[in-house]
Amino acid sequence: MPDHANASTCRATVDSVLTTLEVRPVHSIHGVIPGTATLVVADDTVEVNAAERDRTLLLAPAELTRATGWELRPDGLCRGQSCVPVRDPDVLLVDGAVDLRAVAEALHQPFAFEPGPAIAVLGDSAMAVSEQMASLRAPGFTLPDLDGNAVSLSDFVGRKKLLLAWSSW
Amino acid sequence: MLIAIALDEDLDAILHWARDDPPSSLRYPLLVDRDLRVAELYGILNVPTSVWIDEEDNIVRPPALAWADDAYREFHGIDSSVHREALRRWVVDGIAPLNGDAIRDQQWLSTPELQAGRAERRLAVHLLRDGRPDAANRHFERAIELAPEDWTIQRGSMPLRGEDPFGPAFFAFYQRWEAAGRPGYGA
Description:
The structure holds 2 protein chains of 2 kinds.
Chain A lengths: L3 H5 L10 E5 L12 E6 L2 E10 L2 E4 L1 H8 L2 E3 L2 E4 L2 E4 L7 E2 L2 E3 H7 L4 E4 L4 E4 L3 H9 L7 E3 L5 E3 L8 E6 L3
Antiparallel strand pairs in A: 1-2, 1-11, 2-3, 3-4, 4-9, 5-6, 6-7, 8-9, 10-11, 12-13
Chain B lengths: L1 E5 L4 H8 L11 E3 L4 H6 L6 E5 L5 E7 L7 H4 L3 H14 L6 H6 L6 H18 L3 H14 L4 H4 L13 H12 L8
Parallel strand pairs in B: 1-2
Antiparallel strand pairs in B: 3-4
């Protein structure tokens, strides 16, 4: 079990979110990448251009930023006020495109990938999740009820709340 | 304020359990978390699990198993009245059960392996929704290897892998989990 000291020293932002990508494989990559991709970032879905290569996905740097908020800079990756230094940013690049698996590694976020249909998941980092938990602040969420109405934790501010997670299994 | 969250992919399975039978005067939101996002963000590893959140959205009791009654007590060994009485003290008398450090001591923080397992599970579910059960099963298996402490992955995926969550596959998982020292519990 990780300790809280590690959690509190992490750089990743708490709102680091899940990213899911679907792409049509393409093979030629020179700056602008052909091929349509669908990205799900937390609860949002975005169309992007990306290409499948080996065990990873390649994105134009601008597409990475649009899809995930992370921007490639000479000294690392930045999103908003939060920057993660990368000693050699060239390891994140293949023919001028961003290697998403390498980006995930640099951000300590898990990367799950299925070639063929080319679907990838960029998950939350353990540090970000653990830091959020150790803060003792309740993460906000919005979920549908059985009728499809969106309900948010923030709808009940000012009241004591008992979350009860259950399931059919 | 009770907020029920179903960690289920299958809406019909939820509806089967969510019938108001016998009719109750208690009304509360029943939300559906198909992507297990609340489970991931709060560190919920099994069901039934409760989390207590105060008026200012601070967590005053971290995720912990909370049975409504003692129907399965012989199996899990948890006395449901302990949670119920502590809850009454907090709601009625305003006495929180734990201070900040004690809350943190009871949290099961995440690990890179658990997060990798969650990403694999999310990919598997996505592949399943995309009509690719074989690829989905490979990623479910990877998720299970990576996150042995997480019942929402291990047991929660059983209906999606064609396994009975109350059958032999569950008992095999339970024995593995117990032999490993019941990871994720009593943190």
